[in-house]
Amino acid sequence: MLELATIFIPTMLQEITHGIKKLELDARNVRQVVDELEKAYPGIQERLLDADEIREGLAVVVDGDVSVMGMLTKVGEQSEVHFVPAIGGGG
Amino acid sequence: MTSNQVLSEVEFNVVGKRPVRPDGVDKVTGRAQYGGDTNLTGTLQAKVLRSPHPHARIKSIDTSKAESFPGVRAVITAKDLPLASLSKEELGGDYTALKFASDHMMASDKVLFKGHPVAAVAAINAHVAQSAMDLIDVDYEVLDSVVDVREAMKPGATLIHDELRTNDMGETADQPSNIAAHMRYEIGDVTKGFADADLVMEKEFTTATVHQGYIEPHNTTAFWNSDGQLNLWTSTQGSFQVRATVSNILRLPISKVKVTPMEIGGGFGGKITAYLDAICSILSKKTGTPVKALMSRTEVFEASGPAPASWMRVKIGVKNNGTMTAVETEMAMDAGAYPGSPVMQAIVCAFACYDVENGRIDGYDVVVNKPKTAAYRAPGAPQAAFAVESLIDEICLNLKIDPIEFRLLNAAKEGTRRIEGLVARKIGFVECLEAARTHDHYKSKVEKGTGRGVAAGYWPNRGFQSSVVMTVNYDGVVSLIMGSVDIGGTRASIAQQTAETLGIAYEDVKPTVVDTDSIGYTFITGGSRTSFATGLAAISAAEDVKQQMISRAAKIWDASEDDIEFVAGMISHKSDEELKLSFKDLARQTATTGGSISGRSSVDPTGEGNGYAVHIADVAVDTETGKTDVTRFTAIQDAGKAVHPSYVEGQMQGGAVQGIGWALNEEYFFDDTGKMLNSSFLDYRMPTTLDLPMIDTVIVEVANPGHPYGVRGVGEVAICPPMAAVANAVTGVTGHRMNSLPITPGKILEAGWENGKS
């Protein structure tokens, strides 16, 4: 049986998903995640993306790893996908 | 007296030892080349004219007198920057970000903070440049200013940017506002969590604008060659970051810009932003000669990037046994004149030490009429830790629970889901707390007239890109080339990881930091990333070298590579014990087996090596004067694996001392209009060795599974706990909760008067 990836919806976007905090999707990369979200909840894509890339200030985290490949990042069958604040650093 | 110790779990041959740093001799003998030492033939000196007003419209700038002043070679204003001639349409979606970056470097229409550059002069020497600069006539229309973060958030507040609208995670507000961005994350059922609590406490906290206080001021030398190549020699934490900024602002391809990072006299996050580079570049283009600029200390304070002032509200619900049932915080940080405070990092870090089912975090990025803030060691996290750890202390006092027991009860562990949703991997917070609980300092009696405070801190420690190249010389010495600027001893820590991987002596690795044309992209030295991420690149490049050496041995022995192994610096045939070569022996044969061997690697690690720290502070407070003295201080931190324990201890001590400065002394004093009044080290009081006890350290080593030697970043988390540790200790002596940093003598006396006792 196909295991689905779990997508955690950022709190501020749960108004678009009618209060749903997380959902399961069949997606193989972050682009497919966003596409599937947009199909189900129109308007969510433009809150996550800017010029077809993850919006500045946000980072995609898949299974605890901060994405370095943006929309091309692979998503596994049981992956957890989060959209979280991007973290920089001082020194 | 110091009792520094390392609680080590694994021993290596080179990693974990304390060798002499490769750059040590040059630095202690004064031969190391800093930016100020750059002197090219014919170099002109530049001075920057800065706004005396925190907020004003530039009506006109007359540079004619300065231009005709003897010895002046060029004068520029924002009109000389390329963006001035490009339209909104030409710049497309990048317009706002580029205009902000360009205007930050030199104001075009409005000045937004005292010290904002409006013009610059290049002349035959600094005195001539200064004299000419005084002849530039700027006609300002002075505007109302706003410097307090909460005042700036109010409807009807003076607007810093007429078109800035709040970005609510991708949704833009209709009306202009000083709130540049808002973000919220939530987990569980916060309302129910607070309803389930036996005790709910809520308080507000504030912190002041503070500066990193690096010794070396910002400096740059630029030479725009007639062939179109721009060369920069500068003091920076990230040469590639400077290259990107300059190429963006000057609309140049990145390949036309070469940045050479000079030795750096401190940064702590403040030397990521490029302030002088584009200015010197334009002056160099106009004059055809090298142009150099060096900030004064006043310029550093007024026009570089301090850490933001903040306002924070924290609410925590607990059961009577101390179990946290719900947490909530709103945090607002001033970004200075342009958006980009670290508040989103602050809210992520705020409760990351704790395993709590229900939580809500809100962050507001707010512009004000102050210099644009920059990163400062764990940006955002120290302010958040001050607020959260202070309220936890209040709860512990209320419930009469030992503060370390409380933290152990609620501590984040492997598998803890944080409020933003991410799950902690293997972390060492519990081990830090245990080390604190069993430390002699914590077990010792609190002296009469003193108080003891405990606090914790967290920083994520992420990776980002790094590149390394290493070449095996014929004598067996490995030249290690990297793009990471060495601030805190990373030449040594990367060389150690290289030596460990190759099984050779540390002394046989020769590290060099090079310019942007000589190595692949490397992200800044910051974010506690360099020993981790550049270390990973070095390990990977060393593995590349090992594989090539196996290949050479296969040629020499006419054997299959599969039959050869590389172990502890020896290359051996697996089944013929007579066939073996040391690293040096084989290095000598590279010329006859195919030429030089070079290993290379570029990495972009995705995992986190979360850092946790626990600090214990004892303070004495003079109740007559309100003066606070730190009498004993112990810093405990999980380093994963301390590659060079002396440098880790130095990072822990440095972070603690800077945090003590935030706690007790340091703040920008502004007048009502936003003019800084204490822009010198005489009036901006940082702690010195005379103010402090020895900072004891305990390095805890809970290996990071995302690194072959277990390394976590160590540079930043050390500044997170000290403010609350000191504040909690002051409460222990005085009985007053100090909600506002710095805890000046005046605030302590006022708290006593308000509570009817001194």
Which bin fits the share of residues in helices of chain B? Answer: 25-40%
Strand content of chain A: 25-35%
Q: Tally the beta strands of chain A.
A: 7
Report the oligomer.
Answer: heterodimer
Low-confidence stretches of chain B: none
**Most extensive chain-chain interface:** A-B, 29 and 54 residues
Briefly note the structural class of the backbone of chain B.
alpha+beta
CA distance, first residue to last residue of chain B: 33 Å
What do the pLDDT scores of chain B average to? Answer: 96
Estimate the mean pLDDT confidence of chain A. Answer: 92
> What does the main sheet of chain B amount to?
7 strands, mixed
**DSSP strand tally of chain B:** 29
Q: Please report the number of helical segments of chain B.
A: 21
**CATH architectural type of chain A:** Roll
Radius of gyration of chain B: 27 Å
Task: Tell me the strand order in the biggest sheet of chain A.
Answer: 2-1-7-5-6
Please name the CATH architecture of the largest domain in chain B: 2-Layer Sandwich
**For this structure, what is the CATH homologous superfamily of chain A?**
Beta-grasp domain
Shape of chain B: globular
Number of helices, where a helix is a run of at least 4 consecutive DSSP H or I residues of chain A: 2
**CATH topology group of chain A:** Ubiquitin-like (UB roll)
